Amino acid sequence: MILIEKILLFKKVPFLSHTSPDTLAWLAESAEEQTVNEAEVIFEKGSEGEKMYVVVEGSVQLYNDQKTLRSFGSGDYFGLLSLLDEGKRTASAKANTSCILLGIRQEIFHRILLKHPEAMKALLSILAKRIRGQ
Amino acid sequence: MPASRKLKKFARKELSKNLEQAEFYRENLSKLPFIPKNELMRTALDFHFKLQVEVLLKLLSISEPTIDYRKLFKVSAKGGANAEAEATEVLKGVVGPTLSDRLIALSKDIQKPIVNPAQVDYFLQTFAETHSRWILSGLLLILTKDDYQLHRAFVQTCLKNQDPVVKETALEVFIAYENQRGTVKEECTALVNDSCQGIALMAKKALVAF
After folding, report:
1. In terms of residue numbers, what domain contains A55?
2. What whole-number distance in Å separates Cα of residue A7 and Cα of residue B47?
3. DSSP annotation string for B25-50
4. pLDDT in tens, chain A (134 residues)
5. Domains of chain B, residue spans
6. In B, residues 81-120, which contact A (CB 8 Å cutoff)?
7. Measured between alpha carbons, how far is A72 from A49 in angstroms, rounded to an integer?
8. CA dist., res. B141 & res. B143, Å (int)
9. Contact indicator for B105, B19 with CB cutoff of 8 Å
10. pTM for this prediction
11. Which of A1, A2, A5, A27 best tests the B interface by mutation, with the highest count of B CBs <10 A?
12. Which residue in the set B44, B169, B198 is minimally distant from A21, CB to CB?
């Protein structure tokens, strides 16, 4: 996957959509590309949240006690909450199909939010909407 | 002449120059359809447009520092006809009627869908000489296979670009569209040891496919 493709993918992430191409390029260079096989567990409930993920290809399922909470496809992101509160994962994630993911480490994620207030503002807005929707 | 007057005079002069640049990027954005292959080009033009707007906001603050211009433009864009008229009046007092109308026009969203789209040739003629790596990469991605045959020289030039982002994007387009496989093989062989890991990897992958 070339850098430009990663940039365009990150641009689809709502809280990054107004971030400059230079920042997205830095993020794209820092992101870790990961291939996951079908049914492979990406993280388990209760584990440390080290990364958030953006789905490049394939489908991912977020589940808790065998119950599916949500599914994610290309351009979606998951695993965000643990990066924000540094808490344990509240659900498990596994690949529904073989997948390609881009992982963003916590320190990279924090740096983006600290350096780019527009990303922080957009993220807060997303979280507020989620709380209102609960 | 006192320093503040000199600075204001300078700001005024720069304002028209930057306004023209902002209008240039905005005008080109309004000619580029909202389709996936144009996404990077749209992002690049929008990025440069916003950079010019940021400079404009700074220059306006030099002319009259008591006004919150960011807020003024926001209100003008979202607040309806009355808000727009009020914002225009405020700006008129700072930069005069002509420039104020042009500045307010910048705050408006671009209409969807694009009414008068320009062709790929137009964008290549307009931007092929730019130094912006994002615009060059955007230009490469708007090319279709048919466009490539007409603009092969542009892709070749980008393959020699010092910027790894431009070079990598050019290599992807080149591998996908170049009909003369011998030429692709030759280029990829030359790039397998490129200092950019992404470029070297792409070249190696292409060679394996031969």
Report:
1. 3-133
2. 13
3. HHHHHTTS---GGGHHHHHHHHHHHH
4. 899 999 999 999 998 988 899 999 999 999 999 999 999 999 999 999 999 999 999 999 999 988 999 999 999 999 998 888 888 999 999 999 999 999 999 999 999 999 888 889 999 998 898 888 76
5. 3-106, 120-209
6. none
7. 18
8. 5
9. no
10. 0.87
11. A2
12. B44
Q: What is the C-alpha separation between B172 and B164, in angstroms, rounded? A: 12
Q: CATH no. for residue A12?
A: 2.60.120.10
ipTM rounded to 2 decimals: 0.81
| Cα distances (angstroms) measured from residue B131 to each of B31, B122, B144 | 21, 17, 22
Please tell me the total count of domains within chain A: 1
> How open is the CA angle A127-A129-A130, to the nearest 5 degrees?
65
Q: State the DSSP string of B66-121.
A: TS-HHHHHHHHHHSHHHHHHHHHHHHHHHH-HHHHHHHHHHTSPPPSS-SSPPPHH
Question: Which chain A residues touch B141 with a CB distance below 8 Å?
Answer: 4
Does the distance separating the beta carbons of B168 and A4 come in below 8 Å? yes
Give the tokens for residue B26.
């905005």
Please give the structure tokens belonging to residue B163. 């910027």
Terminal CA-to-CA distance of chain A, rounded, Å? 37
* Interface residues on A facing B, Cβ-Cβ cutoff 8 A: 2-4, 7-8, 11, 20-21, 25
